[in-house]
Amino acid sequence: MFSVRCRVDHARVGCFLALIALFSPRLALFFLWIFSDLLGDAFDSWILPFLGFFILPWTTLTYAAFWDWGNGRHVTGFEWFFVIFAFLMDLAGYAQGRRVYSEREA
Question: What is the pTM of this model?
Answer without folding.
Answer: 0.80
